[in-house]
Amino acid sequence: MAFDTTTATAWITAAEAVVKANEARLTGLDAAIGDGDHGANMARGLTAALANIAEKEPATPGDVLVAAGRGIVAKTGGASGPLYGTAFRRAGKALGDTTDADAAQVGEALEAALTAIKELGGAAEGDKTMVDALTPAVAAFQAVAGDGGTVAAAAQAGADAAEAGLAATVPLQARKGRASYLGPRSVGHEDPGAASLALILRALAEVTA
Amino acid sequence: MKKLINSPDSVIADALRGMAAAHPSLAVDLENRVVSRAGGAMAGKVGLVSGGGSGHEPLHGGYVGYGMLDAAAPGEVYTSPVPDQILAATKAADHGSGVLHIVKNYTGDVLNFRMAAELAEDEDIRVVSVVTNDDAAVEDSTYTAGRRGVGGTVFVEKIAGAAAEEGADLDTVAALATRVNEATRSFAIALHAGTVPAAGKPGFDLAENEVELGVGIHGEPGRERGAMAPVHDLVAYSLDVIHADRPVSGNLLVMLNGQGGTPLIELYGAFAEATAWIEGHGGTVARSLVGNYITSLDQQGFSITVMSLDDELLRLWDAPVSTPALRWGR
Predict the structure, then answer these.
(1) pLDDT, tens digit, 9 for 90 and up, residues A165-189
(2) Lowest-pLDDT choice from A109-113, B66-70, B135-139
């Protein structure tokens, strides 16, 4: 299956559902090292993303992601609003006018999202942020796509890598965001941004499977 | 959780309705969530906008009025406002001479205000941003997101507001705001975390014999946990940290701030200790504020903010102000 308008919309729908189902877990992770609002913020943002998609009735998968990004920025607030919102918007723009993206094109879109997040937030790998889940995910996704794999196979590899990246944030000391103020006390916890990112990429793997 | 609310979802809308009812001097835009001065724009004056998560009342809506802010954008509880909302506040504050954004250094606030500033520039409104970062509890920005903006934000809003009211241009007002920020340091200690309505339980747990040292304003835990001690020791610890970072000397403006759940009797007791400490170190408390000025919901604890005063800063601090939470000389 390629990545078309229906699939893109299904992805955001599934992402909203899984984030809502995990809202308390995300908030708990954030309360441990941040300020305890990540679950509520992400749920609100993805609900707004769905509402904006429904209103705009986008005709391409790229437009779906752009509409999702705009919805997120408009309603989420915090750091996750601009970061996720800009990421989806850049990913959508990277897809251009295509109506049926292949794995390589989706991989490029994910890479554009990663670049946007790094530029806006200034985080690098190892800072204990969503970048630590997205970086290996993009690499794994593109490796499968480069071997001629399907979107489904690439998304599966990407989600697995994101979850491994999430687990790898546990021993790290945060250097960005509110968790950074804890210093060494931020060690021993999963990063909430990496956790929501892993959920969203798992949703992509599930809707493309 | 036991709170005087209808539901966690309606907390901010309900509070904004109450602000509108209580203060005829304010115009409250419930749809865009913007608090601005009633009566609108005053031609030629630089506009001042601040904002951030809700839960820090009276910051920032309580500081909208003559001599201080033109508009405030309150986000969700402990969550920065969104760019469209900040843009609406910027438009409400624009009197044709540009707008100063006063932003506390938290990643979300900085990112959303930056996006809003770009949107405002697209509409030909000149915006200059000043990021406050007065928290002495954070040592450097190499391993953190940088020093947090805390109590010093109140001083920046008051002094920059006074300059704008006198007709200073945008660059002058921004430079003054930067100067106030650089002359100010804060430190906070929490005895018990506040409860975010949507979360339903305190942001962190502390035993009866523990305190969090160096907290920010979002119920986030501090840098380290210490032993509960008499207020004399807690104040001395706080001022030692501030003094090591920027000498506490000369004429000072001192704010002994409550975090929302601390009675005034304890804040005055803490202020007595602070005054004694400062005078013992050769400083002079020239002006002071004691009370709840930048809070963290119902968190128990205090923060101390100290600014070195020169003649100009003192004059602008003393200049008339008329807002719901700060009012004198007019």
Answers:
(1) 999 999 999 999 888 888 888 999 9
(2) B135-139
Considering only the beta carbons, identify the residue of B78, B81, B138 that sits closest to A35: B78
Instruction: Specify whether B302 is located in the same domain as B190.
Output: yes
What's the number of domains chain A is made of?
Answer: 1
Model pTM? 0.93
Chain A / chain B CB contacts < 8 angstroms: 109
Kindly report the CATH number assigned to the domain that includes residue B176. Answer: 3.40.50.10440
Of B80, B145, B199, the CB nearest to A31: B199
Q: Does A165 touch chain B (CB under 8 A)?
A: no
| Contact status of B148 with chain A (Cβ, < 8 Å) | yes
Q: What is the CATH number of the domain that holds B219?
A: 3.30.1180.20
- CA dist A122 and B103 (Å) reads 18
Contact A83 B111 (CB under 8 A): yes
Q: Is A173 on the interface with B (CB under 8 A)?
A: yes
pLDDT at B14 over 90: yes
Determine the number of helices (DSSP H) and then strands (DSSP E) in chain B: 8, 14
Q: Is residue B241 part of a domain?
A: yes
Instruction: Say which residues have a Cβ less than 8 Å from residue A111's Cβ, sequence separation at least 6.
Output: A94, A138, A142
Domain boundary among B131, B161, B182: B182
Residues B116 and B87: beta-carbon distance below 8 Å = yes
Do the Cβ atoms of B295 and B78 come closer than 8 Å? no
CA A78 to chain centre: 15
Cross-chain Cβ contact A121/B216 below 8 Å? no
- Residues of chain A found within 8 Å of residue B218, distances taken between Cβ atoms: 35, 178
Q: What percent of chain B has pLDDT over 70?
A: 99
Q: Find the mean pLDDT for residues A3-26.
A: 97
End-to-end CA distance of chain B: 41
Of A31, A74, A78, the CB nearest to B108: A78
The pLDDT tens digits for A23-82 are 999 999 998 888 788 999 999 999 999 999 999 999 999 999 999 999 999 999 899 999
Mark which of B145, B162, B182 sits at the end of a domain.
B182
Q: How many domains does chain B have?
A: 2
